Amino acid sequence: MTGRMRPRFSLLFALALVSGIALAKPLEKQIAQLTSNNFGLLESMAIQGNSRLSFGEIAAITRIQRGTPLATIDTSVIATRLAREAWIREADVLRLPPSTLLIRVEERKPKAILVPQNSSSREQGTRLVDANGHLFIAVAASNSESLPRLVGGEALASEQQHEVLRKGLALIEHLQAPKLADLWDHDLAVYLPIQNETEGWALRGSMDVLLGQKDLESRIDRLSQLIRNEKIIGALDGQRMLIDLRFANQAVLRRGGKT
Fold first, then answer.
1. Hey, which of 83, 113, 129, 158 has its CA 20 to 30 A from 168?
2. CA-to-CA distance for 150 and 188, rounded, in angstroms?
């Protein structure tokens, strides 16, 4: 092979390896049966899909050492170990003869931070919420301060999905519309409803809003109409305002202290 062809061949081989992973996984048992005699000692580990976790962190979770006979490695056990890591949503492990262990991970993407309303309930580490309402404890990423805040939920168990958190994320998505930009003058916090309390969902930002338990979308539409009303905004004169939208077809506005 000429010097010019060698880099091209290496690139084509790498692309073929990556594109064939998804197809190879269901055939691992058949591959293992056909190539069991070709399994040697583990020399290299290839990891895909990681951005928050480093190569070293993922390798340490596997607890597999270089030099381990590849034929003795149980890929399902390794995948289970990886899935126990808070940042990893899903993991696949594949043995590639003669000496490579291939690991593909799908990391969780946090959509909000869950902050306890009671400071005495703070857990070790930050509790984050992914798009599925899964609550997990992890070291916060560098950009976590820009994530929306959900407040409350001290009784919610970590490492589980919660419908109330899914609803909270959906509510945040509605509140991020441009027509509600005034609510984001300061950090917006969405308070989870408390059982047996009448306030329901509550917002704390440049103004305070009580939404109640039901018909949240229609009440958010009413909220957007109110904050665009120049007479209402002008009458505030720098004072904080509480908007109560729990009552049908009406809104109760109350002035608070200076912002």
1. 83
2. 9
What are the tens digits of pLDDT across the range 96-110?
A: 999 999 999 999 999
Distance CA 221, CA 226 (A): 9
Mean pLDDT in residue range 20-27: 53
Confidence of residue 136 (pLDDT cuts 50, 70, 90): very high
CA contacts within 13 A on the Cβ side of 162: 20
**Do 141 and 52 touch, CB atoms closer than 8 A?**
yes
| Cα–Cα dist 132/155, whole Å | 18
Cβ neighbors of 100 (< 8 A, separation 6 or more) are 42, 43, 44, 45, 46, 70
Say which amino acid occupies 193.
Answer: P
Q: Which of 102, 220, 55 is nearest to 92 (CA)?
A: 102
Cβ atoms of 32 and 69 closer than 8 Å: no
| The token pair that represents 13 in the structure block | 């081989």
Q: What domains sit in the chain, N to C, each tagged with a CATH number? A: 5-107 (3.10.20.310), 110-258 (3.40.50.11690)
User: Tokens 């895909």 belong to which residue?
Assistant: 48
Q: In the chain, which ranges are E strands?
A: 44-48, 88-96, 100-107, 110-115, 126-130, 134-138, 149-151, 160-161, 189-191, 201-204, 208-212, 239-244, 252-258
